[in-house]
Amino acid sequence: MQAVATKLIDVTEANAEKIARQWFADVRKNPKTPSYHAIPEDRAIPQAVDFYTKFRGVFAAKNPFEEARRVYAKYADESYRIGVPLHEAIYALTLMRRHIWLYAEFQALFISAVEQQQAVESLNRTILLFDYATYVITDRYQELMKGEVDKQLSALRALGMEETFTGSKVGIMACLLVACGFLTYYYHAVMASGVIFTHLFYIPIVLAGIWWRKRGIGVSVLLGLILIVSHLIFMKGVALTDDLIRAIMFVVVSSVVALLAEGFSKIEVLYRTPPQAGAAVET
User: Fold this and answer.
1) pTM of the predicted model, to two decimals?
2) Which CATH number is associated with domain 2-159?
3) Residues 31/95, Cβ–Cβ less than 8 Å
4) Any idea what DSSP says for residue 1?
5) What is the pLDDT of residue 278?
C-alpha cells in the first residue's frame, strides 16, 4: 500500500495547482456552494493548494489526527474569515477529496489488479484523514463562533455586571430611583410642568431589565406609580392622559428589555458550554 499511497501523494503534490483549479471550477458553479461563487480565484485556489501540499505530512504522520488538527485548522480559519458557512466549507472539503481521485483516475495511476487493490486501501486511508479534517474544521468553526458571540455579548455582559456585584446593583438602582423621585417632585411641584423629563427614567428601567430580567419590571411599575401619584397630587388641573401613557410605556419597555436579556443569557450559556473532549482513535 505504501508505494501506491506515495504515488498518489506525489501526483497530488506535483499537480496541486491543477487539482485546485479543477476543484475551484467545481465549487464556483456548484449549487451547494453558493458562497464560493463570489470568492475571487486568487483567494480560493491558494487555499486549496495549501491543503493539497500538506496532505503528505498528515498522511504519513504517526498521529494523523493531531497533525490534521494542526494543519486543517488553518483551512477552517480562512473559510470562516471569508464568510463561508460551515456546511459549505465541509462540502467544499468533500469536493477536494473527490478531485484528488478524479485526477488520479484521469492519469491512470493504478494499472494492475494488485495496484487497484492497494489503491482501495489507500482510498480508505484518505477517507479517514478527510474525516479527521471534517472533525477538526467543525470543531474549529464552533470555537470561532463562540468567540464571535462572546465578543458581541461582552458589552452587554459588562453592563450587566457580575453576580458578585449584587449589592452594587441595588445601591446604584436605589440612587437612580431617588433621583427620579426628586425630578418628578421638582417638575410637578416646583415647575408645575409636565415637560418630558421622564426620558431619564429609561436609564433605571433598562438597567433593571438587564440585571434582574422579569423581576426588573417591578422598577418600571414603581416609577409609573410615582409619576401618576405625583401628577394627581401636584398637577390636579392637568389631564392625566400623557403621564398614564408614559407609565404604560415604562412597563412595555421594561418587559421587552427583560425578554431580550433572558434570551441573551441563554445564548451565552449555550456558547460558554465547553466542548466535550474526546480522544480520537485511528482505525
Assistant:
1) 0.56
2) 1.10.490.70
3) no
4) -
5) 45
